[in-house]
Amino acid sequence: MKYLILGAGPSGLTLAAKLIEKGIKDIIILEKETESGGLCRSREVDGSPFDIGGGHFLDVRRPAVTEFLFRFMAENEWDRYERDSRIDLKGRIIGSPIEANIWMLDTDTQVKYLKSIAEAGSVSGAPMPDRFTDWIYWKLGNRIAEDYMLPYNKKMFGEELDSLGTYWLEKLPDVSFEDTLRSCLEHKAYARQPGHAEFYYPKRNGYGELWRRIADSLGDRLKTGVAAEKLDIEERSVNDEYKADVIVNTVPWTDFKEIKGASTDLIERIGKLKHSSIVTEYHKERMDTTAHWIYYPDEDKRFHRILVRHNFCPGSKGYWTETNLNRYRESENEHFVNKYAYPLNTIGKNEIMTDILSEMGEHGIIGLGRWGEWQHYNSDVVAERALLLAEKLAG
Ligand SMILES: Cc1cc2nc3c(=O)[nH]c(=O)nc-3n(C[C@H](O)[C@H](O)[C@H](O)COP(=O)(O)OP(=O)(O)OC[C@H]3O[C@@H](n4cnc5c(N)ncnc54)[C@H](O)[C@@H]3O)c2cc1C
């Protein structure tokens, strides 16, 4: 075939759908699971949808993306929300991001945090460090680092926290010291959220419904239950069965059992890619809050985030938790393990990915999406990249 796409998550599905729209029909897409949607799948749990890959919301910021996705699920099938996210500091609930909301704490704690930020490297003019953990101290000072940012991120990323770099910080809020001071004086948050300040969530069937509909539009070009295990880069074939002019890979490079024809350097580089795994778990109790989600830095709690389902999923009850797999303890509650959840932004990873994608590119194999590019991309971002790639491929 002309195009072989590996993986039917948002990246692969959007690419296939856009290529078809462009009149290119000679496509096969392979998906190892029996259903498509990847991390963005939903299942019904306790009478309502549960997003098995964690809380999933569609950012409103990319009109070209939402316009394309709304062809499969019209805008009136979604609710639009303004983000309400909170932080639980050992029982004291404040808004997020923390540095814009310390005004919600008692005066002594505000003074402690403000003094600590005032002494931080970012305020005193020290150079920005390369390591994420050092950056936290540099940006927010010791107090916020030790009470919130370090314990929270350690719960989320586990032992790898120390190996993370600082080149992905556009994912984090960037609140200046002046804005923190102004927040405390005026008793309101001064901050822009880096993502999901406003978002859509489907009125029915969860976020997975969107991707199910796109998958349905692909007909028998989509082959589910077929894992890509052997990639032959000279032959440009998969499993010795599917051969294509161009292969677009959206699955984790580390998931192939064999990559035939790859240089030793390439295999070594792929071996350096790291990821973390999370478990989502359902709880049927109703939470007394209007928040969409809440962050938990507290070491005593295994999970790091709660998604309050009844505040964004009409007619539902209950909530679900997200927990790093290494911290998770099996329970009776319905739960789902996501082995590949976060591609880790380790120091040097971008250089490694440039080399991997360049060698693969020489063989007509393109990496796309969260795993193909090994980036922390959200689904709207991977969809945008898939649309751009389709335009490029279709010439
Ligand atoms: C906890 C959490 C919360 C998130 N919240 C949001 C959010 O609120 N909003 C948002 O937009 N994004 C969110 N994201 C990001 C979102 O999940 C990703 O951007 C999106 O799923 C990436 O799509 P993808 O197709 O690149 O990868 P994936 O969704 O991971 O899809 C990859 C596909 O490849 C398949 N596959 C894997 N190995 C093989 C193989 N060997 N052969 C064949 N198929 C294979 C998988 O089964 C999967 O279907 C969140 C992610 C996490 C982990």
Q: Mind sketching the topology for me?
A:
Elements: E1 3-6, H1 10-21, E2 27-31, E3 42-45, E4 48-51, E5 58-59, H2 63-69, E6 78-82, E7 85-89, E8 92-95, H3 107-118, H4 121-124, H5 132-157, H6 177-186, E9 198-202, H7 208-217, E10 222-224, E11 230-232, E12 237-238, E13 242-243, E14 246-249, E15 258-260, H8 264-271, E16 275-283, E17 293-295, E18 305-307, E19 319-324, E20 335-343, H9 349-362, E21 365-367, H10 369-372, H11 379-394
Parallel strand pairs: 1-2, 1-14, 2-10, 7-17, 11-15, 14-21
Antiparallel strand pairs: 3-4, 5-9, 6-9, 7-8, 11-12, 12-13, 16-19, 16-20, 17-18, 18-19
Helix pairs in contact: 1-7, 1-11, 3-5, 3-6
Describe the structure.
This protein is of the alpha/beta class and 395 residues long. The protein has 2 domains: 3-83 and 199-394, FAD/NAD(P)-binding domain (3-Layer(bba) Sandwich), CATH 3.50.50; 85-186, no CATH class. The chain has 11 helices and 21 strands. The strands form 5 sheets. A 7-stranded mixed β-sheet has the order 8-7-17-18-19-16-20. Strand 7 (85-89) and strand 8 form a beta hairpin.
